Amino acid sequence: MPIEPQGTGLREEELERSDVLTVSYQPMARYAWATGIAISRFLRGLKDGEIVGTKCDQCGRVAVPPRIFCEWCFRRSGTWIKLPDTGIVNTFSISYISTDTTRVKTPTIPAVIQIDSAGNAGFLHIIGDVKPEDVKIGMHVKAVWLEPEKRKGSITDIRYFKPTR
Amino acid sequence: MSLSQWRCRSLRRVAVVGVGVTPLKPTTPEVSYKELIFDAALKAYADAGVDPRRDVESFVCSSEDFYEGTSIFDEYVPDQIGGALKPVCTIAADGIYSLATAYMQILTGVFDVVAVEAHSKASDIVNISPIYDLALDPIYVRPLGLNANFVAGLEMNAFLHSSKTNLMHCNKIISKNRKNALSNVIAMNSTNAVPRRDRVLSYPLAEEDVAPLADGAAVVVLAAEDTAKSLRDDLVWIKGAGWASDSPNLETHDWDTATYAALAANQAYGQAKITNPVADVDVAEIDDTYSFKELQHAEALGLAGARKAHEMLEQGVYDLCGDLPINPSGGSLGMGHTLEMSGLVRVIEVVQQLRGMAGKHQIAGDVETGIAQAWRGVPTASGAVVVLSR
Amino acid sequence: MLVKKRVAVVGAGMTKFMRRAQETGKELAFEAAKQALDSAEMRIQDVESVALGTAPDAFDGVHMKGEYLLDGAGGWQKPYSRNFVGGGTGVFSAIHGWWHVASGLFDTCLVVGEEKMSSCLPHPQTAFLTIFDNMIERPLGPNLIWIFALEMQRYMQRHKIPKEQIAQVAVKNKRNALDHPSAQIARAFTLQDIMSSEVLAWPVQRLDISPVSDGACAVLLASEDVARKITDSPVWINGVGWNLDTTYWTNRDLYFPRYVANAARMAYDMAGITDPRKQIDFAEPYDPFDYKELHHMEGLLLCRKGEAPKLTAEGVTERDGKLPICPSGGLLGVGNPIAAAGLMKICELFWQLRGEAGKRQVAGDPRTAVAQAWGDLMQIGTVVVMHA
Q1: In this predicted model, what pLDDT tens digit does every residue of C273-292 receive, in sequence order?
Q2: Neighbours of chain A (3+ CB pairs under 8 A)
Q3: Helix (H) or strand (E) holding A89
Q4: How far is C95 from chain B (nearest CA, A)?
Q5: Minimal Cα distance from B138: which residue of C?
Q6: Average pLDDT over residues B185-205
Q7: pLDDT for B263-322, tens place per residue?
Q8: Chain A residues lying within 8 Å of B123, measured CB to CB
Q9: Which residues have C-beta within 8 Å of that of residue C100, sequence separation ≥ 6?
Q10: A64 in a domain, yes or no?
């Protein structure tokens, strides 16, 4: 390479010993997002213990999570449809780290759950009530819901999906 | 490059074939940002007579993560504009930058039809003030603990002093734009009240000097000449596009002059062969995020000629019925300020004026050439200009 | 299609890629930009436009980060803009610069890719929580590794790929990087090292992942007439392509990056490449994780679906193999300052195609190569084809 790369690498110890000067700041960035027509309906559905999707009148594709448009036909999606709370595992992982990269003892099993009768449409959720080594792609699962009075209209109204057979 | 040095390049002609914008509102709780954008997109594609899935070849979107509350926000743009599994990209800047990008994409010859999108869901931000503060230099400025408005206050003071503009002129801008907005169906404003300046934010900046935030979405469709001509007759051509950034550091900030606007205009006017803006420009939609900015920009854009912008304002030149109407839409002060969408709304206004479709606030007479200009807001010294004509 | 103006890369520069740089983002951008200019014996006054790429503002804690960086990037009083397409940004920045010149509007464009991830506490990865859907994904407490693990799992399952074949990519790239002057953390690892590294989110293990880094790169682009005055060996950007899949990644089959294939087809078409396997001499696909190199080789149509692991096992993708892949050492070896990493691949193509890659030089006088980046929610493919 005809050039000499520049740059001064720092080691963690230099930072901890305050050998270099630093400035720190905590941003305050808070949002309250309007969930809109489609996701409001989806979340209300979850509060009522059901999974709701939309179906495009033109191509027949089912969308879950629902949206008011079909992105393939570029038109308003025609109909709301109730979907079963069962599905199959499209893919999964066994995660030993949390959001801030700290290690956890009990792994979390995130997965993409393809909802039954929705084609290959589905959403991200967690698998539970199963040993990690027993999880397989293609496994049939069913939603385990929070008690009705504890639900608040959130994706976490479904506690997790568990294997049915 | 000065006007005279701009090379004469033979470029493809590019026109605006479709525009769509949602009415600006202080809040839009009933729709998500995707649904708001979908509305604007439907309008624009209907206006252009195109099916985005079949006819639009590339999409350019404007957004900034911290306005959305999502990192890598560009992940969330394609579906509601018809761009799924197509060339879609995001420019982190105002909609006019994205328009200039779409313009360049068509000029390369690779695309014939490109759509541009920008939006504001300011109402989803609980408190925007700390977000503005987050744009200040983290090492030299943020430790001062000042609300970012102070930058506008300093600029306003410097500009008023150098140009001998006074607060009455600023009031006149506010009143002019509020009044214009009353005739604009998409504008948020509904007041004609005279500014009282009794709530000062950062002297001399008062609350009324600051354009109120609004939600909205806008989509513009551009096409190369042959395709454009097959779509409609009342084409509005892009004659020039320019954008520029002056120093991002407050320590070397140009306090009284909007140099970035002059540089951007230089490029755009050079391409459009405009040598005398006061005479050649029939309508101007320029940034008025803060009232004084309209005058500061007018001067930088050459719209005051050899005189001061406030003199032109006093003589009614910039009024809706004046010789060079500025912000017939009502501007951000009148319509509402839509963050990175601001410039694109102005482009749409100019297009409507040139088409003769601006309704109750249509400028009388021959409206042949217009400019739309954007500024990226405090604490930047960056902006873009586009020249449009029939 | 006839592109208005031919565009060449005439200069390149890059900083070291470090876990944590003392330099600010502005300074990193400056070092790379200055080197790119010096390498072409040009001054900033000679540059007509500047295009910058940098990934999430959340890393730096600066809103409108592009504005903050512009002086370091040479954008003062120039037409300056920032593109942002997640991980695809590095290679996309070259495309962003390309249309400045290909449009005929400018004769020169300085392209800069910069990333300072280390500012984010407690760890840059925490900033990635906010890339997930604000309404229905963030409440699940996801982390970035999940995405890769889910995609990797699907890819492995579909083609029944043993983990060893994937880990081999990490071994190869980390070894290649020993010859890259910017690689600060380069070390030779054995297959055993990779396979026994800590499991983070199965099937992803610690050494499958490229190191988080700070760094910057820059390239100088020029139109044909100007390029020939600057250098005797301009490297042409013959084809560009980009493609963004639907946001709804949970409605797609992740085993194959169809959006990378679409982007590749667009770029190959423009470059007149009809048989990439034969006509591409070497490639720099995006390799933030080892399996990604394989996934992208297939997306770039350099081999059949599921064939990439076998080619790796056979040594085809080694630097002295028939189709060298990531001769630079890639992100796995050199480091991953997101936007800079993608642009690093463009720099590598530039140096290799001019025969200036030193110990990393692939043999046989390569003439045509492809660089690719990927990002968002397994969504975007950005591809550039260059030719000597």
Answers
A1: 999 999 999 999 999 999 99
A2: B, C
A3: strand A86-92
A4: 10
A5: C62
A6: 91
A7: 999 999 999 999 999 999 999 999 999 999 999 999 999 999 888 999 999 999 999 999
A8: 34
A9: B104, C48, C49, C51, C79, C106, C109, C221
A10: yes
Q: Give the domain extent around A158.
A: 36-163
For chain C, report the end-to-end CA distance as a whole number of angstroms: 21
Contact C199 A96 (CB under 8 A): yes
Report the domain count for chain A.
1
Strand duo A158-163 + A94-97: pairing: unpaired
Radius of gyration for chain A, computed over Cα atoms and rounded to the nearest angstrom:
22
- At B75, the amino acid letter reads E
- Structural contact between residues C262 and C276, judged by C-beta atoms closer than 8 angstroms: no
Close Cβ partners of B92 (under 8 Å, ≥ 6 residues apart): B62, B63, B64, C64, C65, C66, C82, C83, C84
Distances in whole angstroms, Cα of residue C259 to Cα of each of A70, A153, C148, C362, C380: 19, 34, 16, 28, 6
Instruction: Report which of B61, B51, B57, B181 is spatially closest to residue B119, judged by C-alpha positions.
Output: B61
**CA–CA distance, C186 with A126 (Å, rounded to integer):** 36
**Cβ pair C71:B84 closer than 8 A:** no
CB-based contact (8 Å) between C286 and chain A?
no
Q: Could you give all domains of chain B from N- to C-terminal order, each with its CATH number?
A: 3-127+215-228 (3.40.47.10), 149-209+241-389 (3.40.47.10)
Interchain pair B30, A36: CB under 8 A: yes
Spell out which residues of chain A touch residue C135, defining contact as CB-CB under 8 Å.
33, 35, 39, 43, 155
Judge contact between B28 and B86, C-beta under 8 A.
Answer: no
Residues 6+ apart with CB under 8 A from B276: none
CB contact under 8 A, C247 and B108: no
pLDDT higher than threshold 70 for residue B45: yes
**CB-CB: which of C199, C215, C357 is closest to A7?**
C215
User: Does the pLDDT of residue C294 top 50, yes or no?
Assistant: yes
Report yes or no: B12 and B107 within 8 Å, Cβ to Cβ: yes
Flag whether A120 is in a domain. Answer: yes
pTM: 0.97
What are the helix and strand counts (H, E) for chain C?
14, 11
Of A23, A28, A37, the CB nearest to B35: A37
Domain assignment of residue A65, yes or no? yes
Mean pLDDT within A68-72: 97
Q: Which of B66, B78, B139 lies at the smallest CB-CB distance from A23? A: B139
* Closest chain B CA to residue A27: B134
Specify the amino acid at residue C307.
E
- CB-based contact C13 A156, cutoff 8 Å: no
- Across the interface, whether the CB atoms of B34 and A33 are under 8 A apart is answered no
Pair of tokens at residue B230: 């097959």
Q: How confident is the model at residue A12, as a pLDDT?
A: 83
Task: Among B104, B243, B246, select the one facing C103 at the smallest CB separation.
Answer: B104
Q: How far apart are CA B73 and CA B88, in angstroms?
A: 13
Give the CA count within 13 Å in the CB-facing half-sphere of C192.
0
Q: Which residue type is seen at C45?
A: Q
The rounded distance, in Å, linking the Cα atoms of B360 and B78 is 35
Does position B190 have pLDDT exceeding 80, yes or no?
A: no
Cβ-proximal residues to A161 (8 Å cutoff; 6+ apart), any chain: A87, A111, A113, A125, A126, A127, A128, A141, A142, A143, A144
For residue B326, the distance in angstroms to the closest alpha carbon of chain A comes to 34
Asked if the Cβ–Cβ distance from A3 to C35 is below 8 Å, we say yes
Q: Which residues of A touch C351 (CB under 8 A)?
A: 1-2
Q: Is residue A28 a part of any domain in this protein?
A: no
For the cut 90, the answer to whether the pLDDT of residue A62 exceeds it is: yes
- Alpha-carbon distance B89 to B285, whole Å? 26
Domains of chain C: 7-121+211-387 (3.40.47.10)
Q: E strands, B166-246, where?
A: 200-202, 205-206, 215-224, 236-245
Contact C300, C260 (CB under 8 A): yes
